[in-house]
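seq:
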Amino acid sequence: MALALSPLVLGLGGCATEPTPLQENVTYATEWIGDEPVIGRTQVTLVLADGRAYGNGGCNHWFGSYVRDGEQLRFSELGSTRRACNEAIMAQENHFLETLGRVQRWDISNLDQLRLWPDQGAPMRLWPADE
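struct:
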């Protein structure tokens, strides 16, 4: 009986895949900020590189620092340029930066979407951007 099950067991071993890692030097495009989708075609992006984080908030370029320890991820010293844009875009950008400052951990969904989890509420959801 054990011999008959061996090919089945071996076949199932090939189904497991490694989770996608959090990648540095990759531009991630934000799709959702908590429970709110990104407005229209607004580019809200995130790049992680050697302890530095930066991107576009939809209107302004933003920047800061991050520390990653396993699944723990924290952003600090967040700032941005000070260009004025449409009121709704500015509100979205402020919400993005405020939520980013509350991120506690990250994971990759079963759809290979990066999720950044704040201390409370729904995660930010991002995809690697087409470049």
